[in-house]
């Protein structure tokens, strides 16, 4: 869709009743003290979407994604069965199932239905506008953070590094930044590789949004947010090389690789220099893996060990590595899981160490999930995420649909981050399910013109 075309199309009243609350929900998800508001918005959206689905008869759209939904339902059934048969705290696991898993599934269902309803009328125009609404919502939140940071820099005389007052914590703004970067990178890839625009944004606005994301990533200074940014750039390079492998000359391939490596190296070097935690990581690994003789990882009252240099280990580095090792060992001991929940790691540790007195979450979403519901659930989750990623890749590589690449980036980004971050819970998981299922519908439109050019149009 071109920018001029977007100005001739607008949502109907019934569509605004979906898009408006969806944007508000996406905005408030990361804000502190908004649980009641989130629940209210979720309920309102669910009622409106179900009502419109019943009238429009688009439930047949679920048949096209029946394998995806059946996988999710099978995984949900396993979580309940596991809690009843193998859970060490069955009641707590079932409560977590309803409060965490089912709620996230509902937000995914809402995202799916909203996209299906919006795109039933002129999908080549309404789809990009829906994606644009999500993009602007994320950009507004990140823009507020950047403006507040610059204001404080001007007022206080120094850059408020690793701080945010807009969302609940640094991790929250980092996740939002990664999501927006996924959408923007997909748009740039489509314009570069296929000469078509999806979002009704000029090049100048795209550049501004990129600058906002880069500034937020640097200032917030979360290591995993930085790693996600670098992984996204690497993914873009790989997508470019795969898509144009037959038409690019060797010299151009080398030039692209060198430029990408230079950009990644520069940003990585700046990030390492601005975060001292990277500098002691290697020495910390040796100490953290010695969980048999070290006690600080399982007893928060114990002092942290010292590095060979005499410096106290960095808390986050030490704890995450030690917890990851013990979580892996516990999965081997309990391959069917100990019961679904955010505290699965703590429950497993108390079976091994009755005096365990530290975090009940190992800060690795995928490890905590596997420890809770077992290896069968992990395999089903990989199938579910793999289906989404495959839908995204086919949509982009075969049809040049940028929504497909966005879906691929959102899914892969969430999965990579779940290895090192506890994003498999609360609003982070709800947000992922909402956007992933929404972009799955947009990616599955797969519309092309007879000439082979996407109906989404050329760059305006």
From TrEMBL:
Pfam families: Wzy_C. It is found in: Membrane. Keywords: Membrane, Transmembrane, Transmembrane helix. InterPro entries: O-antigen_ligase-rel_domated (IPR007016), WaaL-like (IPR051533). The chain crosses the membrane at residues 12-29, 35-55, 67-88, 100-118, 171-190, 197-218, 224-241, 253-272, 366-390, 402-420. Residues 209-382 form the O-antigen ligase-related domain. GO terms for cellular component: membrane. Its main location: membrane. The keyword RNA-binding does not apply. It is a multi-pass membrane protein. The keyword NAD does not apply. Signal peptide: none annotated. This is O-antigen ligase-related domain-containing protein.
């Amino acid at each position: 869709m071109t920018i001029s075309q977007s100005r001739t199309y607008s949502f109907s009243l019934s569509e605004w009743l979906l898009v408006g609350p969806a944007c508000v929900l996406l905005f408030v998800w990361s804000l502190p003290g908004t649980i009641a508001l989130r629940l209210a918005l979720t309920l309102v959206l669910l009622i409106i979407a179900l009502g419109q689905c019943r009238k429009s008869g688009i439930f047949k759209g679920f048949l096209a994604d029946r394998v995806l939904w059946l996988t999710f339902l099978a995984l949900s059934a396993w979580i309940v069965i596991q809690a009843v048969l193998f859970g060490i705290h069955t009641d707590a696991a079932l409560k977590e199932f309803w409060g965490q898993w089912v709620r996230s599934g509902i937000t995914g269902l809402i995202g799916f239905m909203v996209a299906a309803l919006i795109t039933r009328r002129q999908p080549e125009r309404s789809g990009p506008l829906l994606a644009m609404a999500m993009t602007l919502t994320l950009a507004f939140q990140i823009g507020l953070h950047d403006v507040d940071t610059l204001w404080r820099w001007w007022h206080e005389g120094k850059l408020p590094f690793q701080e945010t007052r807009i969302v609940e914590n640094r991790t929250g703004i980092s996740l939002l930044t990664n999501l927006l970067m996924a959408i923007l990178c997909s748009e740039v890839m489509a314009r570069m590789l296929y000469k078509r625009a999806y979002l009704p944004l000029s090049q100048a606005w795209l550049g501004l949004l990129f600058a906002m994301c880069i500034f937020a990533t640097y200032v917030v200074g979360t290591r995993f947010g930085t790693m996600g940014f670098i992984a996204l750039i690497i993914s873009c390079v790989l997508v470019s090389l795969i898509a144009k492998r037959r038409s690019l000359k060797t010299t151009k391939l080398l030039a692209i690789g060198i430029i990408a490596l230079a950009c990644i190296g520069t940003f990585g070097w700046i990030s390492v220099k601005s975060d001292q935690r990277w500098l002691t990581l290697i020495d910390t690994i040796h100490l953290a893996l010695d969980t048999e003789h070290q006690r600080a990882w399982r007893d928060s009252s114990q002092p942290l060990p010292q590095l060979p240099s005499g410096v106290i280990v960095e808390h986050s580095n030490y704890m995450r590595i030690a917890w990851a090792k013990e979580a892996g060992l516990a999965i081997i001991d309990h391959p069917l899981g100990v019961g679904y929940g955010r505290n699965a790691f703590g429950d497993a540790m108390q079976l091994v160490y009755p005096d365990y007195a530290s975090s009940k979450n190992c800060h690795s979403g995928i490890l905590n999930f596997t420890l809770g519901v077992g290896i069968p659930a992990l395999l089903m989750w990989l199938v579910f995420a793999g289906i989404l990623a495959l839908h995204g890749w086919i949509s982009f590589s075969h049809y040049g649909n940028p929504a497909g690449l966005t879906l691929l980036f959102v899914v892969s980004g969430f999965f990579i981050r779940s290895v090192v971050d506890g994003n498999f819970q609360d609003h982070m998981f709800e947000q992922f399910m909402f956007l992933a299922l929404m972009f799955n519908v947009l990616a599955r439109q797969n519309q092309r013109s007879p000439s082979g050019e996407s109906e989404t149009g050329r760059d305006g």
